[in-house]
Task: inverse folding
């Protein structure tokens, strides 16, 4: 009898049936175990996804755009680019990385505790806060033209104090209840907070004694009475963040020429932002004339100048 006939005979089938059943049982156990493992894996994956969703929700509540209009979540590309820009301005990569990180934590803390928000994108805010102390202003007198809620000045006080400075802040703003910009509609702020002096005072108080002592002058920066009230000193730092039109920026730069201390730092916000072409237009034109200012460079959307 050949081997095929042997395997297919009824006697052989009876003898091999226990072996076949044992194999079937083992295969069945393996299949059940695989199915159980697959179900457990899907369960673990489902649990992981739910945990990530909860973490993302928490992160969005802390850093998302709700209540400020812009997200504070950071991406590696823009952050690395900002580090390089601040390092080029300051001449110190390690200090740039340190100051940008400190500025970011300060930004998140102030918007968590304060009234309103800090105007601008995350990299732009951190670039200004991180760079100004590293440029070693000649004195600690700071003028901010256009403040919204005063939070940027609050942050700058803290950054200067971290550098061993004793900042004294003067703020000029019309406090019109909403943010004013020529050519844009007037609308409520994303934070829901009125743009007024009490909100600014609340935020400045977060900076301690220097914030409480800050001078606030209500009015437009081009008004002669407003200028006269705060032109009693030379400023080591002037932040120009008021009227974003070419005409408005040109007037603020002309005023800054008169009140900037020798070696003073002038920061021109939203420089290079395509939404505000008048800012670059005004600066480019200003620098072609007779001026005390030298262009140092930019970090994110802020230009930095130094007065002679």
Result:
């Amino acid at each position: 009898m050949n081997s095929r006939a042997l395997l297919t005979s009824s006697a052989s089938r009876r003898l091999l049936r226990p072996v076949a059943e044992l194999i079937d049982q083992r295969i069945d156990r393996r299949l059940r175990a695989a199915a159980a493992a697959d179900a457990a894996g899907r369960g673990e994956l489902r649990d992981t996804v739910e945990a990530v969703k909860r973490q993302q929700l928490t992160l969005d509540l802390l850093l998302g755009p709700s209540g400020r209009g812009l997200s504070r979540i950071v991406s590696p590309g823009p952050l690395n680019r900002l580090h390089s820009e601040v390092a080029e301005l300051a001449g110190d990569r390690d200090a740039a990385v340190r100051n940008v990180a400190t500025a970011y934590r300060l930004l998140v803390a102030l918007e968590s505790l304060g009234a309103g928000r800090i105007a601008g994108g995350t990299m732009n805010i951190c670039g200004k806060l991180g760079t100004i102390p590293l440029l070693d202003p000649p004195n600690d007198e700071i003028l901010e033209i256009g403040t919204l809620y005063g939070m940027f000045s609050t942050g700058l006080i803290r950054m200067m104090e971290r550098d061993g400075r004793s900042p004294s802040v003067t703020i000029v703003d019309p406090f019109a209840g909403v943010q004013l910009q020529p050519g844009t509609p007037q609308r409520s702020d994303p934070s829901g907070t009125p743009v007024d002096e009490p909100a600014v005072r609340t935020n400045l108080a977060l900076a301690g004694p220097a914030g409480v002592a800050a001078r606030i002058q209500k009015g437009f920066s081009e008004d002669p009475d407003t200028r006269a009230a705060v032109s009693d000193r030379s400023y080591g730092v002037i932040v120009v963040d008021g009227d974003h039109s070419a005409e408005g920026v040109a007037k603020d730069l002309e005023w800054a020429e008169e009140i900037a201390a020798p070696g003073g730092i002038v920061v021109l916000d939203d420089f290079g932002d395509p939404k505000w072409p008048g800012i670059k237009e005004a600066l480019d034109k200003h620098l072609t004339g007779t001026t005390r200012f030298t262009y140092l460079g930019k970090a994110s959307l802020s230009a930095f100048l130094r007065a002679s």
In short: The chain has a mean pLDDT of 90.
